[in-house]
Write a structure and sequence with these properties.
Layout: E1 2-11, E2 14-24, E3 29-33, H1 40-47, E4 55-60, E5 63-64, H2 70-77, E6 80-83, H3 95-106, H4 111-124, H5 140-152, E7 158-162, H6 170-187, E8 190-194, H7 198-204, E9 207-212, E10 215-220, H8 222-225, H9 231-239, E11 247-252, E12 255-261
Parallel strand pairs: 3-8, 3-9, 6-7, 7-8
Antiparallel strand pairs: 1-2, 1-4, 4-5, 9-10, 11-12
Helix pairs in contact: 3-4, 3-5, 4-5
Length: 262
């Protein structure tokens, strides 16, 4: 479905992606983790050619997106829905108008048909009651769900998520996780998630990949990931109180206040 072949990208004097190769299968949730500046979001941007590699290729199915231009590139991009980190909502439009914007711009549909599709999509993300509200009048978690509704309304094959739980409280973050997983199962989409939140990654990922200093150092299932022998992976796990034996532990003072099996 998505394939990186020896991709190298330099931004300024810094190598952000260094000979990165991996493949994402259809209908999986592929989660890319790593510290800030590791190259996570840069990898997402290559998938829809907001960035072009200095070396190597990026494939979407049978198409080389890293070399596509014009109508060919537009056709490839139409296969994607994107949830941006900030949700990127238009503040002067209602929730419904934000969600329906892609249909108004790209689809040949009547106003009534667009209204029906918007209502159906809002229901999928549990936001029917927010239909007429402005983004400023809803919570950050609800704004993320509006952004997700807009991303899926054109029924894309692939959804890209850039830090979907960033800035959200733990309860709301888990709600977003459940929604991502439900959409993958219900719509059959391929999901690519960039996050620094390992609890989220372990909950929703079918495979987890870790970037470190521009290189892909681990690609494995969640259960294999937490038992990785790679030092950088274990350091990253430990920083979020996730242990090798499969228990997540949060310290508060000298007491362990929360733990859960993976």
């Amino acid at each position: 479905m998505i394939r990186f072949e020896h991709v190298k990208k330099r931004l300024g004097n810094r190598v952000v992606l260094d000979d990165v190769s991996f493949e994402i299968q259809k209908n999986e949730t592929f989660v890319i983790v790593g510290s800030s500046g590791a190259g996570k979001s840069v990898s997402l941007r290559h998938m829809i050619r907001l960035l072009t590699p200095d070396e190597g290729r990026v494939w979407i199915g049978d198409d080389v997106v890293s070399e596509a231009t014009g109508k060919d590139l537009e056709k490839i991009r139409s296969r994607f829905g994107v949830l941006f980190q900030s949700a990127a909502l238009l503040q002067w439009l209602s929730v419904a108008d934000n969600v329906g914007l892609p249909l108004q711009e790209k689809a040949r549909m009547t106003r009534a048909a667009i209204h029906t599709k918007v209502e159906e999509t809002l229901k999928m993300v549990n936001l029917e009651e927010a239909h007429d509200k402005l983004p400023a009048n809803i919570s950050g978690g609800m704004q993320k769900r509006v952004g997700l509704a807009r991303a899926i309304i054109m029924e894309p094959e692939i959804i890209l998520y850039d830090e979907p739980t960033s800035g959200l409280d733990p309860v709301t973050s888990r709600t977003i996780d459940q929604l991502i997983d439900r959409l993958r199962r219900g719509l059959g989409v391929t999901s690519v998630v960039v996050t620094h939140d390992l609890h989220s990654a372990l909950a929703i990922g079918t495979r987890i990949a870790m970037l470190h200093r521009g290189r892909m150092i681990e690609v494995s299932s969640p259960s294999e990931f937490i038992r990785s022998k790679h030092k950088e992976v274990q350091n990253f796990l430990a920083s979020q109180y996730i242990t090798k034996d499969g228990e997540w532990e949060v310290e508060k003072g000298e007491s362990k206040v929360w733990r859960s099996k993976v």
